[in-house]
Write a structure and sequence with these properties.
Blueprint lengths: L15 H9 L3 E7 L2 E6 L4 H11 L4 E9 L7 E9 L4 E9 L5 E2 L8 H12 L3 E2 L28 E6 L4 E6 L25 H8 L1
Parallel strand pairs: 2-5, 6-7
Antiparallel strand pairs: 1-2, 3-4, 4-5, 8-9
Length: about 210
C-alpha cells in the first residue's frame, strides 16, 4: 500500500504580528506585514535576546540567512536582517536591527553556529561590527582589500587592483588607474535607425541589387 503524505500547510500571517509583538514587549521597535511577510524591528542591544525568544518559545528554529542593507542618509545607516524559518509552522520571519558604522550589533553565534560565516559576510560587505564574534574577518574579499563594496558610497572602480607580475613573480597591489576618463558610444536607438552606414550594410545593399 502506498501512503501519500501531504505537504505541510503553509502558515498564514494572521495573528502573528500581534502575538510576537506582545511576546517581545520592550525589545520591539516596530512590527508590520509587508509583501506577505512579517517584519519585526528589534532594539539593537536586545537582538540576541529577541532572537533567542523567537527560537526557544515561538519555534523559529533555523537561521536561514543574514543580509545587510545600506541607507546612507539615515543616522543609523545599516540594517541587519535575520531570516528565520519555523520548520514546525512552515513559516518565515524577518527580524531587523539598525546600526551605525560605530555601533556594534550583538553576535548570534551563541544561538546558531552558521551565524559565524553570515556575520562575517555582512562585516566584509558593509563593515558592520558584531560584538562577541570571535572570528570576525573578511570572508569574500581578499586579505588586503580596502573598504566595504556593498556600501552605497563605495567607488564603482574600487580603491586598488591586484594582478600577477611576471617581472616580480608574485601578486602585486596597485592603485586603480582608468585608461580612459570617459568612453563615448555613438550608437543610436535601434528603433530610430542610424543615419550613417554601419559596417556590413554594404552587403545588404549588394543583395538587393
Amino acid at each position: 500500500m502506498t501512503v501519500l503524505h501531504s505537504a505541510p500547510k503553509i502558515a498564514s500571517n494572521e495573528g502573528v504580528v500581534e502575538t510576537l509583538s506582545a511576546a517581545l514587549g520592550s525589545m520591539l521597535v516596530a512590527a508590520r506585514e509587508e509583501h506577505g511577510e512579517v517584519v519585526l524591528t528589534v532594539v539593537r542591544d536586545q537582538a540576541e535576546n529577541a532572537l533567542r525568544l523567537l527560537r526557544d518559545h515561538h519555534e523559529y528554529q533555523q537561521l536561514m540567512e543574514m543580509a545587510g542593507v545600506d541607507y546612507p542618509s539615515r543616522p543609523e545607516r545599516f540594517e541587519v536582517v535575520y531570516m528565520l524559518l519555523s520548520i514546525t509552522k512552515n513559516h518565515r520571519l524577518l527580524v531587523k536591527v539598525n546600526a551605525a558604522e560605530n555601533t556594534p550589533v550583538p553576535t548570534v553565534t551563541t544561538l546558531w553556529h552558521n551565524a559565524g560565516w553570515l556575520e562575517r559576510e555582512v562585516f566584509d560587505m558593509y563593515g558592520v561590527i558584531f560584538a562577541g564574534n570571535r572570528d570576525l574577518r573578511r570572508i569574500l574579499t581578499d586579505y588586503g582589500f580596502e573598504g566595504h563594496p556593498f556600501r552605497k558610497d563605495f567607488p564603482l572602480t574600487g580603491h586598488i587592483e591586484l594582478r600577477y607580475s611576471e617581472e616580480d613573480k608574485r601578486v602585486v597591489y596597485e592603485p586603480v588607474q582608468l585608461a580612459q576618463d570617459l568612453r563615448q558610444f555613438d550608437f543610436m536607438s535601434p528603433w530610430e535607425g542610424a543615419e550613417y552606414v554601419l559596417p556590413g550594410d554594404e552587403k545588404a545593399e549588394g543583395e538587393k541589387a
